[in-house]
Amino acid sequence: MPDRSDTPLAPVLLGNEPGSFPHSVLAERHPAIIRQVRESFPYAPQQHRALDALLASCTKGVIEPLPADAYDGEHWASWGADACTGRTWFDVPWLWSESYFYRQLLEAVGYFTPGPWQGIDPFRPSKLAELDSPETDEELAALDALADRPADEQDRALLHGSLWGNRADLGFRMSAAQGEAATSKTPPLVADDSETLWSLLPHSGSATLCLIADNAGRELVPDLLLIARLLTQGRVGRALLHVKPYPYYVSDATHADVLDALRRLTKAPGAAATYGRVLWSAMTDGRLTVRAHPFAAAPLSYADMPGDLREELAAATLTLVKGDLNYRRLVGDRLWPPTTPFTAVTAHFPGPVAALRTLKSDVITGLDARTEAALVAAEGQKWRTGGTHALIQVRT
Ligand SMILES: O=P(O)(O)OC[C@H]1O[C@](O)(CO)[C@@H](O)[C@@H]1O
């Protein structure tokens, strides 16, 4: 396995280059998210004023500190708040800037403040709309036909459901052109280590799986279906589902979203309800546990994870890391040459790890030179951010 020390570090992504993808997220997507949040609930005047102040700060101003009594002030201090406060949102690492934006957005709407708005998720209306959509009905109805297919076909379908479910990201849809398909000259999957993934989960009933979730709604539902399948097939004996401790990156899953998705499954007709019951009983007998570690919303790479989380992930047979943002945190939010070995940049991870991700940012590793050349020839650099390509990468 190539060692991390053989791999020169690539530049950290910043949002200060006009025309770049990170710059567009800070300059266009964040103001659009503030607009969306204003419309999500009848917020009071002081909440609108706080949103005005955040809009001014994140577009034209500088990073402001959290309130002195913030419950997580110490975490943010240890995650680099002192070095970033007072600088523009465009000049600090992009990952830091984005993560702090969501923290300050929740501050503005009173999510952490004792009172009637405490704990009200500003993104819940859009998450629920997605869960109730006809597309979700269709996806769940497809499970009925799948039940008659051979076992390996069912495994593969549910793995791919979880993978492509990552396209269903509400923040991404606010700025990406939808409906584009990968060109016929380039494969939708730019890397596929799924055989290695399956070899790590034989039907022994003894494996522990950690799944680090990404989005709620139409991504979390297939993630839960995959977990149910792995449990019923004995590929996994125990699963830990890691979600965010608070609403984040628009549609990231929280514990409340897990419960909404689970209720959606158990109330559905046909095979979907069977999957729902498997998950319900696995939660009640302890085979499926939901975790919401504070580090899940940290603006840092997984290389910097704290000891308790490292220990838990080290004990897993496999950790499945879902989505684009988690990929950025797994390999480091850097402009790596695309052929940088995935095994080298994930050498820090405490155990076997698999990334399931659709490509929605500039960060990419582990491509072979021929695939990279074909992608560039067909699409320039659009394949990196368009969400039309995906990957399954594994480090054993
Ligand atoms: O939901 P995901 O797959 O983590 O994607 C998050 C999206 O937000 C971004 O962080 C940009 O804001 C991109 O990495 C990606 O397009």
TrEMBL record:
Pfam families assigned to the protein according to its UniProt record, in alphabetical order: ARMT1-like_dom
Keywords: Hydrolase, Manganese, Metal-binding
Signal peptide: none
Family annotation (SUPFAM superfamilies): AF1104-like
A GO molecular function held by the record: metal ion binding
Domain of life: Bacteria
Catalyzed reactions: beta-D-fructose 1-phosphate + H2O = D-fructose + phosphate; beta-D-fructose 6-phosphate = dihydroxyacetone + D-glyceraldehyde 3-phosphate
Cofactor(s) needed by this chain: Mn(2+)
Keyword Hydrolase in annotation: yes
GO biological process assignments: DNA damage response
InterPro entries cross-referenced by the UniProt entry: ARMT-1-like_metal-bd_sf (IPR036075), ARMT1 (IPR039763), ARMT1-like_metal-bd (IPR002791)
Sequence ranges assigned to domain Damage-control phosphatase ARMT1-like metal-binding in this UniProt record: 26-371
Similarity comment: Belongs to the damage-control phosphatase family. Sugar phosphate phosphatase III subfamily.
Name this polypeptide is given: Damage-control phosphatase ARMT1-like metal-binding domain-containing protein
Species whose genome carries this gene: Streptomyces regalis
